[in-house]
Amino acid sequence: MNPFQRVTLVYTHCLLGSIWLKPMFVFSPLAVVSCNSVEKKIYVNLNYTVSCVRLLNATHQIGCQSSLSGNVGVLHVLESEENLDWVLHSGPNPPYMVILESPLFTRSIMMKLKNGSSRVAGVAVVAPNTNPAAGFSPHTKCPNENTGVYSVKYDPAMAHCNKTLWNPLGNGLSYEEFDFPIFSLKDDNETQVIRQCYLDHNRAMNGSSLQYPLCAMQLYSHMSAVTDTATCMRRNDINFSINPEIVCDALGDYNVWASTRPLNNTAKGHKMWESVVILDSRSFFFDIAPGAESGVSGFVTLLAAAHALRNATQEAQPNRTILYTFFQGETFDYIGSSRMVYDMENKQFALDLDNVHSVLEIGQVGLRADSRLWLHSDPVSRRNNSVNEEVKGLIAKLHSAATGLSVSVQEPSFSQPLPPSSFQRFLRARPIPGIVIEDHQSAFTNRFYESMYDNAEYLNVSYPPNLSPEEQLEFVTDTAKFILFSTVSRGHLDTDTDVSSCFVFSAISQVTQMLYSFLVQSNNSWFQQLIPSDLKSHLTNRPPNYYVGVAQQSSEPTLLVQHLLANLTGRTVNITQENCQNQREDENDKESKHMYSYMWVQGVAPPNGTEREGYCIRSTVRLSKALSPAFDLRQYTSDDYSTWTESRWKSIKGRIFLVASHELEMLTLGVGVGVLLTSLLLTYIISSKADILFSSGREPTNATY
């Protein structure tokens, strides 16, 4: 007998045993333990999966979900698009749980499955070990189309990507709504078990019909929120119990920022005589996208620039303060940058927009095969003469900084709007001089924008075989050599003395370590020494998860960037751990906390011991809220701000098992009902005849002893 069949019979027996016990009001812990043990033998749980979840905004919902009890379907491994007819029409055992190899995870196939969803229980996509040759981007062709600066009111000719289609490979799959669950299978061993189960039980051989039992899969990913953000937030406000149910949460996190000159963070609003240059990086984060080119390349470059400028700006302060900013949630309608602009406008930030002189943004800069970077500017704001002159000055400085380097900088050869960038949110508030540095002149060179393939391999961060993790951490890759920051640092030191001439390249070892930590695994000796001991659990043997998440706590990338920026731009101060954690230089210090932040980090582990020598870092690094103003204003249908929310769920899990034929299920049900009725009848008969059946041994009532 097949072992799966044998388990099915035992499971049936366990259920019948439970039915038999119920009329007798008997509870046996051993029976429960036995049933749980049998359950483990029936199901193979899938432990390494990532589910598509439901997101909502002002107008609609996107993503996926299962029914409340999970979706169950017979496994079918799709071998080609032509094989879809079996799933959608001719297969005799619907609904089907479709297993897709990554080359078949296309918009064409997914939309056909969506339209035939009555026969589709769910989809499981096998994550590849190597990137495909063809491009794949599940984002839209015009990212953040409706929340940037280019509206019909700003300039009709440039609205809706009319002049430049930035992401031509975008298929919009991430913005579709599916009424069945979609999982990504990440583990090769589990994938092999699924394939083998399919081959053993579900694949017809030589034209023969399928024989039961069949291999099936069950996926749980039921989402609580429906319709749109306004609906789910209204449901959040309904309080009919002591513990009201929350069905969705606003997307959000924290922005990370620091300045070359200490700013009083307690006194909000305008700072007299203060003029800042905002140097920022975008982070287009999504749940299963590593974001190597679309996010990591930019903020690693900015971190390297900040480190190079630490000594330079302290030796000779530039005429303007440089403000380093790392915005979160930008892929979801510019959550981080729109919040900072809102706070500046409403005197809730350390500076206001009047203090902002110019903006220089580092975007996607990791794929410059021709050693060329492009300087994008806004043609509409440059119609203002003063803005145009400032932009020309920025471009001239960047050209000067690139002289003699292996990388060149150029302006696009034609007039076009800015690419998707945080700078657009500043331009929505007022005309501000600014440049966006990218590795593309027009359309993205990134063929895997916001996809699972935008990873270390695509950015050419690879290592020779047989290197240990610590050796990989120190190995200088070609990409590390490409991450140059002098084009940024020299172009922004507005001072009579060229204090940046000693910093043509960043410390190559630190760029190497950053790329390894953000793209390969964060749990390494370098990161361990730069964080407090209570954040050790955030370090894992994989890249950080770059999905923005919900506005409940700081995400892993935010915490890592915060502490790394503090170490790269701050100074070690000789104070006690208690004073450091209390944000002061000594017991009498009441002022420093307004100008600086203090962090006690673990330090280096000694070669022959485990006791680390911690120390205190004083820096200007701060966190500010990256939550869309729409949620503070309760404008859940806003056209001006992001309204994205994420649905809550009870559990996300998957498992495979063997399923019996419908006839056997009906037979089992009939036998169970028969046993139940028989037990009820016997219980009634025994109870009604109890005086007769149990009277022979009864003693007389007047017996005495």
TrEMBL record:
It comes from the Eukaryota. CDD domains: M28_Nicastrin. It is found in: Membrane. It is a single-pass type I membrane protein. It holds the Pfam family Ncstrn_small. GO terms for biological process: Notch receptor processing; Notch signaling pathway; protein processing. Keywords: Glycoprotein, Membrane, Notch signaling pathway, Signal, Transmembrane, Transmembrane helix. Residues 51-225 form the Nicastrin small lobe domain. Belongs to the nicastrin family. PANTHER family: NICASTRIN. This is Nicastrin.
